[in-house]
Amino acid sequence: REDICGERMTDALQFVFLELGRFHKTEEELDNDLEKWYFCLLRMRNLAKRPASLQAEVFRRLFDVSEVEALPKEEREQYIRDMTTERDIINQKAFARNEGLEQGLARGRAEGRTEGRAEGRAEGKAEGRSEVARAMLGKGMDIALIADVTGLSAEQIRTL
């Protein structure tokens, strides 16, 4: 094209020179993103609002930045300070949220391990009592004696 010339330096680097003075398309004639960029670079200074053809996110961000840059120096500096403060607050909240989540998970794991150990011990004791009761039954011992020794009920011993 006559409005672009370039020179490939390497496979990853190429210099491109744009002659915006040769670009004369109107907004309605824009065919692709490259032409939208030309149009934007060439006419942005004179645009009162963002054209319908430049509604993509990348152009929205470009226009937002240009609006900030167009502010008087004191207003722009105040805007930047305000945005920095806002970002700091957002980051502090995110950090606090993540820190709280990590602490909650750690506490939950610790409590879960403690509860799990207690449940495991209780199940182990119950299983041990059942094994002793089975062994005593196998030796022909009286159910009342087995219940007294193991702490199991007569009904529990009968179901073994």
List the helices and strands and how they pair.
Layout: E1 4-8, E2 14-18, H1 33-43, H2 57-70, H3 73-138, H4 143-150, H5 154-159
Antiparallel strand pairs: 1-2
- Give me the secondary-structure category: mainly alpha
- The Cα radius of gyration reads 39 Å
| Helix content class | 55-70%
Give the strand order, joined by hyphens, for the main sheet.
1-2
**Terminal-residue CA separation:** 92 Å
Q: Quick one: how many beta strands?
A: 2
Counted by DSSP, the helix tally is 5
Spans of at least 5 consecutive residues with low confidence: none
What coarse outline follows from CA principal-axis ratios? rod-shaped
- Secondary-structure element series: EEHHHHH
Which strand-content bin applies to the residues? 5-15%
Main pleated sheet: 2 strands, antiparallel
Mean of the pLDDT scores? 86
